[in-house]
């Protein structure tokens, strides 16, 4: 088995946006991207958590990150364009987008599934991913080689009882990987 060992500074001069960067996988990804030399843009809904990640990255001596406080529950097409404009003005390009933020909703049968929860899960896990990716593509195209990463789940290609909107949103995510980007 081959073990992939990235070289130090392999992400030097790269600018990478991570959604849901304040906790969990998004937090770890952001810190690791920074460790390997990237300038990371930390997007999330809880500013204090983003500030903690910011401080941790600064303490590593990695490139200074940026913070975009944004509750994706309320992300509109206008907000997505504003984010794209801000990144283009500040960095001139975007090398990577990690669409990571998601919510689980509830695990229950469809008769008990609240329509509000359904809409919230679809907004954060699907609609906001579509809007951000759509509006960031022109900025991603300014980089020599850019990447968009979507975050799925085991229930994104095989449903499981009661996983409801979350599972449906991850099936949509997997569809987006093959349908939007080439
Ligand atoms: N952990 C697993 O075992 C697992 C398994 C399969 C797939 N995944 C996928 O991996 C990704 C990350 O999972 P995780 O376990 O790291 O999740 P997590 O620990 O719950 O972290 C999710 C992050 O997304 C942010 N977020 C949630 N709603 C948001 C909103 N409306 N606007 C902006 N940011 C929002 C959260 O912000 P706050 O910190 O402010 O809450 C948090 O920083 C998700 O896409 C998930 O579906 C995870």
TrEMBL record:
Cited InterPro entries: NAD(P)-bd_dom_sf, SDR_fam
Record's keyword terms, sorted: Oxidoreductase
Entries under Pfam families matching the protein: adh_short
Taxonomy, superkingdom: Bacteria
SUPFAM superfamilies on file: NAD(P)-binding Rossmann-fold domains
Keyword Lyase among record annotations: no
Gene Ontology MF terms: oxidoreductase activity
Family affiliation: Belongs to the short-chain dehydrogenases/reductases (SDR) family.
Name listed for the protein in its UniProt record: YciK family oxidoreductase
Species this protein is from: Pleionea litopenaei
